[in-house]
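Notes to self after the Tuesday call (sharing in case useful).
The group wants a holo model before anyone commits to mutagenesis around the pocket. I volunteered. Ligand is zinc ion. Logging inputs and output together so the record is complete.
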Amino acid sequence: MSAYAVGFARPDRRSWAQPVDQPMSWHAVEAHRPVDELDGEVELAVCGAIVQVWGNQDWERVSAGRSSCAECVRRTAPALRHAG
Ligand SMILES: [Zn+2]
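Result:
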């Protein structure tokens, strides 16, 4: 299972790993549990940022957008390529 949940970097939980000037940032969170269960949880993103899981978002779709975390996109790209 190589599923990723989508995490949102909340301004009030800004991580040391994230630059301050990224107010809209989607991150990939390794889904060690069903995404439904992770919804709303605060998790560690693939890139090391602290994010809140946004359960109704699909990382495969979000990662193609412009407001996604470049580091997370890079790290999850191989897994997404092999999936499906
Ligand atoms: Zn990230």
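Two things stood out.
The chain has a mean pLDDT of 82.
The chain has one domain: 4-82.
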